[in-house]
Specification:
Distance between the termini: 32 Å
Structural class: alpha/beta
Strand order of the largest sheet: 2-1-7-3-5-4-6
Largest sheet: 7 strands, mixed
Order of helices and strands: HEHEHHHEEHEHHEHHE
Number of helices: 10
Shape: globular
Radius of gyration: 18 Å
Number of strands: 7
C-alpha cells in the first residue's frame, strides 16, 4: 500500500492536467480540490457514500458481507472501497447527463468521456498539459474503451482505473456491467477488474469493448492509458531519455472517502 505522501503526489499530478474535469467528492473536500485545480475547467459534484446508487439499491449490510466473500481475505479492504469501485459507472452516467462543458460544433453524443482514478498519473510528465490528446480511430460510438491487463497481471482482469468512450457506448457498457454485478451478487464483487473482464467477455460477439493492450515500454503497464491517449510518440521520446522509473504499483485503491472520483469530458 502506498504511503500517504506518495499518494498525495500522484493526486497533485492529476490536478495539474488541463482537461475538463468533473469531480465527485464529499462536500468537506471540495475546497481542497478547488485550490489544487485553481482556474482549470472543473465541475464539482458533492457526494456522500450513502447517496451512491449501489448503497441505495443493495444496502450497506450487503457490502458489509462482501468482506466475508473476499478470496483469501488478505487485503483487509473496506466495504466503502467495494462500493466505490463499483459505483464508477453510475458516476459516469451522471457526468454524461450534465453536459458540464458544452463543446462548440460538436453534438453532445460525440463528446468523449473517461473515468480516470485520481492517482492514475505517477509522474510529472503531464503536469500543465492535456492528458487526452488522441482517441483511437477505430473506436465506434457504441463501444467502451478499456485497458486489458490480463496478460500482465496473470489474471482475467481489466484495469479498473480507466473507462472511456462516447455517450452511446458508455451507456451500453454501464448497463451490461450492472447486469454482471446482479448476476454475481452472491459472489465477491469487491474486485471490479474481474467484473469488467466478465462484462466484456459476455459481450464479445457484439464488440462492446475496444481493448487496449497494456505496454510496459511507456512506464507502469497498469496505467498505460495515459501515454496511449496523450500520444505514445511523445512518451517514446521521454522513454529514450530514460526518464521513467520502474514502479510496479498496482491499482487505485484509497480509503472509503469519495475523494478520488473524477470523469473527463472532451
Amino acid at each position: 500500500k502506498s504511503a500517504t505522501s506518495e499518494y498525495a503526489s500522484w493526486i497533485r499530478h492529476m490536478m495539474l492536467v488541463e482537461d475538463n474535469m468533473i469531480m465527485f467528492c464529499e462536500p468537506d473536500l471540495i475546497h481542497v480540490f478547488q485550490e489544487l485545480r485553481q482556474d482549470r475547467p472543473t465541475h464539482f459534484v458533492p457526494t456522500t457514500l450513502n447517496e451512491t446508487l449501489l448503497v441505495k439499491e443493495y444496502g450497506m449490510d450487503f457490502w458489509d458481507q462482501q468482506s466475508n466473500l473476499e478470496p483469501g481475505k488478505l487485503h483487509h479492504q473496506s466495504k466503502e472501497l467495494y462500493v466505490y469501485r463499483n459505483e464508477k459507472g453510475h458516476f459516469l452516467e451522471q457526468a454524461m447527463e450534465m453536459d458540464a462543458f458544452p463543446t462548440p460544433n460538436k453534438s453532445f453524443d460525440e463528446s468523449f468521456f473517461a473515468w480516470i482514478d485520481l492517482a492514475y498519473l505517477r509522474n510529472n510528465l503531464l503536469d500543465y498539459k492535456r492528458l487526452i490528446r488522441y482517441l483511437p480511430k477505430p473506436l465506434r460510438q457504441d463501444q467502451a474503451v478499456l485497458l486489458d491487463i490480463h496478460h500482465f497481471v496473470k489474471h482475467d482482469y481489466l484495469s479498473g482505473d480507466f473507462i472511456g468512450g462516447y455517450k452511446k457506448g458508455l451507456k451500453r457498457w454501464i448497463r451490461e456491467y450492472y447486469k454482471t454485478l446482479e448476476a454475481n451478487r452472491h459472489q465477491f464483487l469487491g474486485n471490479d477488474r474481474s467484473s469488467m473482464y466478465q462484462t466484456c467477455e459476455s459481450n464479445k460477439k457484439s464488440g462492446l469493448c475496444y481493448m487496449v493492450a497494456s505496454n510496459e515500454r511507456y512506464g507502469d503497464a497498469s496505467f498505460h492509458m495515459a501515454p496511449y491517449l496523450h500520444g505514445v510518440q511523445y512518451w517514446g521520446i521521454l522513454d529514450r531519455l530514460n526518464v521513467f522509473g520502474k514502479s510496479r504499483c498496482f491499482g487505485c485503491c484509497g480509503g472509503g472517502r469519495l475523494n478520488q472520483d473524477l470523469t473527463f469530458q472532451h
